[in-house]
Amino acid sequence: IACVLSGLPESIIAAACARSGQRVLHVDSRNYYGGNWASFSFSGLLSWIKENQQKTDTSDECEDWRKLILENEEVISLSKKDKTIQHVEDFCFGDQDSAEDVEEAGALPKLPIFGASGAEGVAQESEKECPPMESALPEAESQEPEKATGTKPASAMKGNDTEITSENESCHSTALGESAPELGKTEAAPSEISAQERKKITYSQIVREGRRFNIDLVSKLLYSRGLLIDLLIKSNVSRYAEFKNATRILAFREGKVEQVPCSRADVFNSRQLAMVEKRMLMKFLTFCLDYEQHPDEYQDYENSTFAQFLRTRKLTSSLQHFILHSIAMVSETDCSTLEGLQATKKFLQCLGRYGNTPFLFPLYGQGEIPQCFCRMCAVFGGIYCLRHSVQCLVVDKESGRCKAIVDHFGQRISANYFIVEDSYLSESICTNVCYRQISRAVLITDQSVLNTDSEQQVSILTVPPVDLGKPAVCVIELCSSTMTCMKDTYLVHLTCPSTKTAREDLEPVVQKLFNLNTEKESENEELEKPRVLWAVYFNMRDSSGVDKNLYDGLPSNVYVCSGPDSALGNDCAVKQAETIFQEMFPTEEFCPPPPNPEDIIYDEDEIVPEESGFSNSPETKPQPSTEESSSGGSTAVKKEDNEE
């Protein structure tokens, strides 16, 4: 199997193929994992911005690769320029004085920092400047060396986090309530902050603390009962990452940000709702949980929008707003009644598994998830090559199947199946494809959009359309305990389907929620808003949902994966990965759990000789150092995985 690019769908497919015993080569022309699913330190993001603003062409390093093509073969050239990112604009609203000569703390001189997640850099800095945090892994595991195959180990450090476990352990898995007071015990309460002068964060501080940031290109959350969580648990890949609960759901109504009660306890403890409204809301949410059993209540409205259906349910305007924008999180104009009921049911079913909200967020950013699956692939023998571009696909004229790829060194690499990300396909192949676009903005701010007693909040907010015909904007605000930003700052992600450039789509929402003025403000309203310190806007291609038949001239054994979509969850990527895997190997199980050490039976022929560090006795465990450096057969890989 040859996989080109290491985005989330490709990484899942690579891990599934390696786990089923296939030989996998995973190459990526970039020098970081994840593609458009990656996370960057602040300096890494600045380098990414510069690359996408310049859009320089990459020249062939080897001009003789065409000599490798035989007479009965033809080539499908791959694109060398990434056109998935457009309209990149970055702005600094803080004080830039003396920031030019400031270097990122812990950075190597004269080397650009491209940490795909920045987890290692943050871990090193944390050891120097932060109190030690307890590791989620046993001591022997947290000290294991990096894989010989080249995959970067997923971070083992924890903040205020949640460990994903199986269903029967879920009630004991959340450490949120225990660790939150310790992390926030030195923080000032909002009343104290308002009494003091707001702490000023300069641009030079952000640059200096750049490795504290892990900034995602794509902003998503994990539904606690979603396909990705189920896959992480089933495959045991969840042990490579740590997660934090999204602590609150917010709504933007009448110019103010409010917290939405979504669980039963939240509803009855809420001071925003009258007692009558509480009963109305609980009655409707109970109906949504088993709406299929009561078709007579919604059949007459199947052709209506969900917003129109809500108006018939005797709900107040505030309840309709909460349900539409903060619970179902659907469009007011385009979502049908059935789609709205399904979205509401999904939200409610995910409540309570790991916390009071349906969502989890991976520590160090969404870019950790592709790396976790890459690590699983490497554990089972997959080979990874970054900074390794592919010139073309080699196709047999008679059979029409792809036989090999030719890389930028002029090497010909044969494989049976080929996984290619959509961005690598040339314009001649994609002439019939019509792409959508996603508008993205990332802000660094100095305080939360809704201050409470605890500053360590992970919030999700849906802002209704500013104008008619505009899409709603999803806002995800991350605190420093998610390991995505420095202390005393917040990382805010804004996402919506594009109608214009990202700045035109999102700046009106930014102006409503935040203070963009660099001059000293005189209005109290502006002083209360969080101040934007730095911002970047960009448009990202949404290639999800494209039928393979729309790609002209692709061989049957070449499978195309899409980039990130605009949805909040990751179900599209998981479904696509499973569909492609089942097309290639219909009889194999998709990402089965790794075997327990007690269940492995070793044949004498498979035992590695003692001089390589393994004993002939299956009861004797290998030494970790030898185990990591060994690149033997499947037995050594299985032992290696179990020891981890």
UniProtKB/TrEMBL annotation:
Molecular functions (GO terms): GDP-dissociation inhibitor activity; GTPase activator activity; transferase activity
Keywords: Cytoplasm, GTPase activation, Transferase
Domain RAE1/2: residue ranges: 438-566
Any Pfam family hit: GDI
Taxonomy, superkingdom: Eukaryota
Subcellular location: Cytoplasm, Cytosol
Region (Disordered): 119-195, 589-644
Swiss-Prot/TrEMBL GO biological process terms: intracellular protein transport; small GTPase-mediated signal transduction; vesicle-mediated transport
Listed GO CC annotations: cytosol; nucleus; Rab-protein geranylgeranyltransferase complex
Predominant place of localization: cytoplasm
Comp. bias regions, Acidic residues: 600-609
InterPro entries: FAD/NAD-bd_sf (IPR036188), GDP_dissociation_inhibitor (IPR018203), Rab_escort (IPR001738), RAE1_2_domI_C (IPR054420)
Ranges of biased composition (kind: Low complexity): 625-635
Segments of skewed composition (Polar residues): 162-173, 613-624
Protein family: Belongs to the Rab GDI family.
Protein name: Rab proteins geranylgeranyltransferase component A 2
Gene source species: Pygoscelis adeliae
Organism placement in taxonomy: Eukaryota, Metazoa, Chordata, Craniata, Vertebrata
